[in-house]
Amino acid sequence: MAAMFTCCLGCCGDGGSGHIALKEMPTVQLDTHHMGTDVVIVKSGRRICGTGGCLANAPLHQNKSYFEFKIQSTGVWGVGVATQKVNLNQVPLGRDTNSLVLRHDGSVYHNNEEKNRLPANSLPQEGDIIGITYDHVELNLYLNGKNMHCPASGIRGTVYPIVYVDDSAILDCQFSDFYHTPPQGFEKILFEQQIF
């Protein structure tokens, strides 16, 4: 019996200390492998400029996700969710079934159909923070922490956060350490390994 116990301890790989090295969890950021050809990603995968779209590197697997975008410079832009089939060189997005986005003019588009619209007096400006919640059915929008009561739905499949820019727009992505507290029950995007 003692020999079997010793063997088990000795088989742990590091001389029996019992410590197992854990892999560092990846950081959610914009994915330079899934971006338009004229897109520029800087600030450690958090800032987008140029022309085109970019997906985040983590799909929205959990039930209730929250993420934010800060408008650093106005222009043509859009934020929301999309599948990996989206055409990242075609702006504005929301023209097909592969993206559901809030556009810079306050409209929310999916499959070339306006699904909703922000109130006229609530159009995002330079310096504003756009919060997005997604629960696999409905996308909701927040402006500087305030619920815009502007739900939209319709997209199917595995989706990722998406942002696109054109006409000198610059946006920063915030996937953790948020400017505003996420709505109750919603949290930062987790990689699949973090959920289980």
TrEMBL record:
Signal peptide: none annotated. InterPro entries: B30.2/SPRY (IPR001870), B30.2/SPRY_sf (IPR043136), ConA-like_dom_sf (IPR013320), SPRY_dom (IPR003877), SPRYD7 (IPR035766). Gene3D superfamilies: 2.60.120.920. Residues 1-184 form the B30.2/SPRY domain. PROSITE patterns: B302_SPRY. It comes from the Eukaryota. This is SPRY domain-containing protein 7. The lineage of its organism: Eukaryota, Metazoa, Chordata, Craniata, Vertebrata.
